[in-house]
């Protein structure tokens, strides 16, 4: 994957050409306040756009947050043969992030004695039904 700062590369020309040729996702970090309003990074070629939401939502407060916007690229070849984009449509990135967290966090939570029911709760709540397109 290739990651750039949206403010420093407002037109995404060189990176767009390079990442399309290499077939890798282009992630644009749009951290300046005005960046998301003035520049439409997804329309300029970015596949995933990240915003530092604390500047947009909370101002100079104490909160920390972020927004991830999927531009429509299937960033993984598949999960056991399932394409996230084909199965979930516009929610492909959120499904991939959730499934990745289930894969990585749930097994380690089983080993942690301080969270005995967490892993089973995650498995009951997120059974992969999100991959069925509605």
Summarize the structure in words.
The chain has 134 residues and is an alpha/beta fold. It has helices at residues 13-22, 35-38, 53-58, 84-88, 92-111, 118-125; strands at residues 2-5, 26-30, 48-52, 66-70. It has two domains: 1-73, no CATH class; 76-134, no CATH class. Helix 5 runs antiparallel to helix 6. The longest helix is centred in the C-terminal third of the chain and has 20 residues, at 92-111. The chain is flat and about 45 Å long. The mean pLDDT is 67.
Question: Top keywords for this entry?
Answer:
134 residues, flat, 2 domains, four-stranded mixed beta sheet, 4 strands, single chain, alpha/beta, 6 helices, 14% strand, 40% helix
Average residue pLDDT: 67
The class by helix and strand makeup works out as: alpha/beta
- β-strand amount: 5-15%
Span of the ends, CA to CA:
29 Å
- Biggest sheet features: 4 strands, mixed
- Work out the helix count: 6
Run of helices and strands? EHEHEHEHHH
Q: Rg to the nearest angstrom?
A: 17 Å
Helix content: 25-40%
Q: Which strand order does the major sheet show?
A: 1-2-3-4
- What's the overall geometry? flat
User: Low-confidence parts lasting 5 or more residues at pLDDT below 50?
Assistant: none
Total E-strand runs: 4
Quaternary: single chain
Structural domain tally: 2
Compact overview of the structure:
This protein is α/β, with parallel strands linked by helices.
């Amino acid at each position: 994957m290739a990651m750039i700062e949206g403010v420093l590369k407002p037109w995404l020309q060189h990176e767009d050409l390079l990442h399309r040729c290499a077939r890798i996702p282009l992630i644009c970090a749009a951290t300046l306040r005005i960046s998301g309003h003035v520049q439409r990074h997804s329309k300029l070629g970015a596949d995933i756009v990240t915003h530092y939401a604390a500047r947009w939502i909370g101002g100079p407060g104490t909160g920390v947050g972020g927004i991830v916007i999927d531009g429509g690229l299937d960033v993984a070849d598949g999960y056991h043969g399932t394409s996230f984009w084909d199965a979930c449509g516009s929610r492909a990135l959120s499904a991939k992030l959730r499934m990745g967290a289930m894969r990585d966090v749930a097994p380690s939570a089983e080993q942690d004695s301080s969270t005995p029911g967490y892993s089973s709760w995650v498995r009951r709540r997120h059974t992969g039904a999100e991959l069925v397109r509605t």
